[in-house]
Amino acid sequence: MSLLHPWMLLALPLMALPVVIHLLNQRRYQTKSWAAMLFLMQAHQAQRGHAKIRQWAILAIRTMAIGALILAASRPLMDGLAGWSFGNGADSTIFVLDRSPSMQQTGLSGESKLQSSVQRIANVFSKWGRSDFAVIDSVYEEPSTLLSVQSLIDSRHGRSASNTADIPAMLNKAVEYSRRNQSGSTDVWICSDLRLADWKPDSSDWLTLRESVRDHPGSMRFHLLAYPEQPPSINRSIRVKEIWRVRGSEASEVVLSIEVACDVTAHPPSEVPVMVEINGVSTRFIVKFDGNAVAQHEFRIPIAPHNENGWGHLSIPADANLADNDAYFVIDEVTIRRVILVSESADVSRVLKLAASVSPDTGTETGAEVEWVEPSQFDALSLDEVALVVWQASLPDDSTSLRIESFVNRGGQVVFFPPSQLESGLELVGNNAFNGVRWSRWVHDQGRAMVESWRRDQDLLVVTSNGEELPVDELQIDAYGKLEGDITVLATLSGGDPLLARVPTAKGGVFFCTTLPSEKFSSLAENGVVLYAMIQRAIDQGLISLVSSSQCIAGQVPRSMTQSLASWHRVAGDQSTSSSEYAFQCGVYEIDSEQVRSGQGVAGGGNSVAVNRSEAEDQPGLATVALLQGLFDELDFTRVDGALDQESTGASEVWRFFLLAMLGALLFEAILCLPRSLKKEIVPKSSSQTSSWASLRIAKAENETA
Amino acid sequence: MTNRPNDRDFLDPQVVSRLRGLPLVARKLMLGSVSGRHSSPHRGASVEFAEYRKYVPGDDLRRLDWRAYGRSDRFFVKEFEADTNLRLVFVLDTSASMAFGSGPLSKLDYAKRIVATLGYLAIEQGDAVGLFCVADQIKGSLPASRNASHLSVLFDTLEQTQGEGETRLADVLHELAETVRQRAWIVVLSDFFSDPESLRDCFEHLRFRNHDVSAFHLMDPEEICLPIERPTRFVDMESGATLFAEPAEIADRYDREVRDYLESIKRVALETEVDYQFVSLDMAYEKVLTQFLLGRIQGRGGR
């Protein structure tokens, strides 16, 4: 608690006024000769204890009332932080700062949550004279010592970043720091807006945290300075979902798939203007919400054919959070269409290689570079620039599966064909599964199965751009393999078995074609069109992921690119960002390839990289009280809620409390001092003077009241 | 001894003249020395027929009822009630507590007025009047006499009486019960700051001696209702002991104590057939005496 008018405390001696008056009153007693001493002594004896308690109570209440009045006049300020700071003589204090984009939400004063929390911490803790301070922010995630708390305000720790925070990891770092410094007691102050993306409740780090705190030789207290959502605010966010380039004969186009989201707590506007800047040329679009909180839109923006590379910037008008109003992207020309063909059969591999290597546009693009390898050679290959893996062999073992899964998660495409052992009736070696799907047995259908149905709206068998269907129904299948596992069927044979299936994945694509492109088993090779379309579309999808490899998530930029941050040059983005935080701030950065190559790694995806915030940052989920209690189970945890647009001191005036306390005290004192109610007549009834005595007593009572 | 009229302000002739029309009667039979206005246990020569009695030799022949003899041929003597005077004995509490008075009159002054007025009326109707001034013991006594000159002595005694000393009313009343001859009218004037149960014994003792007992209980208004003022050091008028108290703090309890005490006194008076009169000093004593005398008429004793 601090005071706006501390000089008013000079009046505190006035609290002794009731006692002084009481003593003076005692001094000015009168002496009176008294006859009915008998009653007086009896009354005094019986009343002494109660009267003394009442008298002291009245004196105490009067004293407290004056004290409360003086404190109210001195305008006290109380802060939840301050309340907890009292008496907590921790040896060290560690501040854990969430610098994620959601902490950039601003109030009416223009102060963000991060700025507000840092300001409050600086104001409060600078008053209590702490000396051992450290800070861990969500960018560096390493403790750094503070010379003074005030230095937090202007330091890099108080500036915004674009990466998602990892609160449990930072808390573990705080515990480790405390253990390393052998602190007896440590206070950890967490400044966060409780976003689930930052708190990662499913992370195993929480378990580690609880165990490490239990094993900590000293005491650790966790305090959360929380900034929940500000209901009245309206916030919109924009991000690039996908970007690819469509090359025409005369002009090229950039196809941008964007997503604009709006807080559901506010009334969503019907439309939002989006400013698109590509290579310095700005274009304005209108995105309509149509009553939804999220709007997805696809733009086609023509660019000059000679502009092989470039970058772009999307922006929407300012709102409550400026950090999610921009999105950046890089346009890269991917010239190499690399395909890896893993096959055990020469015939099949020849057909597949042919289907992959023929360019869809003979005029402008070259065909894919197909590399045919044995399954055993696959692990030696780099998948960095591979768009598609065609696997016609026994399903990969665990180690290879992990590699392929990583490739798929990057956005790569995999098409599995039945292995030769299956069609020859040999027992499958290991009978491995990929993502829970495995080959079961080979089926010979003498009646030549036809494709009964297929998905025309998406995936590999979708209709062409001019609306024509692929001739899937013309395919004749003589033999095929049966699948086991959770699959999504894209094409179904007349017997009900799948011809083409997809395995659900978060990113990328994993497809199973149940027959082989051989005359012996199907007309895939003879027909040609369907197989060619399937393979080329899979390559295109894989290329999109390669283009996206230059679109990085803040804080998740590959280590190979961040090992030499000195080679990064800002092209677009926040000008105040220091170079050490380029990988954590939204923007477009140009990487000096020579410097990178001279380093330990080579950047993939070209010379430019666009860094954007993660998709999780736009998710509105907040950590609930129950969740927090569960995360800090058995730990010393307290929480105080902060709010934007508070006074800069971070404290609120509480003079009303003291004023109410004074009024309450005076009311109680008045009750204690109430004159006695009229008792029933004490003079004997038989006396004729009864009425006159009653009159006398009433008159006396009235005089007392007056 | 020089009379000082100003010091005898306890007798107001106008009050006496207004009260003269009210008879002063006893509630019990009295044994007087001369004829008077009060009923006697003996037969006498009044006009009120009492009974017939058989003639025995030696009876006064003038009292034979010849008509009864003519009708019955037997001798009967006609007897009549006797009227006598009484001995009115005042017991005046002259302890120091009686000197208390918040108004112009102290309790003792007030009691003097009652004694003087009643004494005057009694002597005027031929009754003998005596006075005992008591505190911790009998401080002064004036034997009962019906002479008119005795009134002057009574007033002189009253005039010289001062409130001093402690109260031992119970002991003194027991002593008086044995001292005063039977069948007297004993009027006690006191503030009765004693244990009510001890007073019960005294009154029963007096009743056992066939005394007609009246009690004037005198209290000052401030004693009934504690004045709520600033802190006060109370000094006991009898013992000199002091007590520092805040009247406002103990007023409730004080009222309760007084109420309980008065109820006890009243109960004792009823149970011992004492003619109890509660008197507050702020009442006119004439009104008090008027009610007292009227009450006596209604309760006049039979034979």
TrEMBL record, chain A:
Pfam families: BatA
Keywords: Membrane, Transmembrane, Transmembrane helix
Domain of life (superkingdom): Bacteria
Domain Aerotolerance regulator N-terminal per the UniProt entry, residue ranges: 1-76
Transmembrane feature ranges: 6-24, 56-73
Keyword check for Transmembrane: yes
Protein name stated in the entry: Aerotolerance regulator N-terminal domain-containing protein
TrEMBL record, chain B:
InterPro entries registered for this protein in UniProt: DUF58, vWFA_dom_sf
Name under which the protein is recorded: DUF58 domain-containing protein
Highest taxon, organism lineage: Bacteria
Record-linked PANTHER family: BLL2464 PROTEIN, DUF58 DOMAIN-CONTAINING PROTEIN
Sequence ranges assigned to domain DUF58 in this UniProt record: 51-259
